[in-house]
Specification:
It is built from nine helices and eleven strands. By secondary structure, it is α/β, with parallel strands linked by helices. The protein folds into two domains: 128 residues, Periplasmic binding protein-like II (D-Maltodextrin-Binding Protein, domain 2, 3-Layer(aba) Sandwich), CATH 3.40.190; 83 residues, Periplasmic binding protein-like II (D-Maltodextrin-Binding Protein, domain 2, 3-Layer(aba) Sandwich), CATH 3.40.190. Strand 2 and strand 3 form a beta hairpin. The structure holds adenosine monophosphate. Adenosine monophosphate binds next to strand 9 and helix 7.
Length: 219
């Protein structure tokens, strides 16, 4: 039986991939100001393909780390992804035409206050393995990077690592676990990412949407 959701090529219109949580929460008001409103409430609906008030535009809800993959392979024309995810992504074939200035936070090195960062073979737990390796190499610090998928704050408390590299917004999560930011790695916000082939094939439609979003970011 044919699925009711055509793939991006068959769909003909525009498909935007974005992730649940902070990015969706901040992106919805921005999309609304650009004239795009989902027909279902994404926080309540279990649907992963959301139709919008624009018949030729739909939203895909995917994992944050999967957004650039959907866009690079053309399963979505456009994505909304954190700079943290884009710094870590190893593919190419994506344009990043617009900083949406939403879901802003910082990527930091954190640990128990006073933890020396220069100690030989510093152990660092993070889900951002490539970004962390690049950061410590640029600092001239030899670091052993341990990949974790969640609850990074536990790692220094349990002696799994000396420090972590993670996103921080208010700092409440770090403080609640007796940790503090020790060094700044990068300022983070969400980016609009666009498939290179779609940018050519659907140029006018995508340019119009980028212009509307750029206006919504400024307002
Ligand atoms: P906070 O306690 O406000 O510093 O928030 C820290 C927690 O929220 C950490 O677990 C982060 O991974 C997560 N977080 C903070 N900002 C963002 C963001 N912009 N996008 C995704 N996760 C975030």
């Amino acid at each position: 039986m044919k699925d009711s959701s055509p793939n991006a090529e068959e769909h003909g219109g525009l498909t935007i991939a974005l992730s649940k949580g902070r990015i969706l929460q901040d992106a919805l008001p921005l999309l609304a100001r650009a004239g795009v409103r989902p027909m279902q409430d994404p926080s309540r609906s279990r649907k992963l393909v959301l139709t919008t008030n624009q018949p030729d535009l739909r939203l895909l809800v995917v994992r944050a780390q999967d957004v650039p993959t959907y866009v690079e392979y053309g399963a979505a024309d456009i994505g909304i992804a954190g700079k943290d995810v884009m710094m870590e992504y190893r593919g190419d074939g994506l344009y990043e035409p617009l900083d949406l200035n939403i879901a802003c936070c910082r990527l930091v090195v954190a640990g128990r206050p006073g933890t020396p960062l220069g100690s030989p073979r510093l152990r660092v737990a993070t889900k951002y393995v490539h970004t962390t390796r690049r950061y410590f190499a640029a600092q001239g610090i030899q670091a052993e990077v341990i990949k974790l998928y969640g609850s990074m704050e536990l790692a220094p408390l349990m002696g799994l690592a000396d420090v972590i590299v993670d996103l921080v917004d208010t700092g409440n999560t770090l403080r609640a676990n007796g940790l503090a930011a020790l060094a700044h790695v990068a300022d983070i916000s969400s980016q609009l990412v666009v498939n290179k082939a779609a940018m050519k094939m659907k140029h006018a439609r995508i340019k119009r949407l980028i212009a509307k979003l750029a206006r919504a970011v400024r307002d």
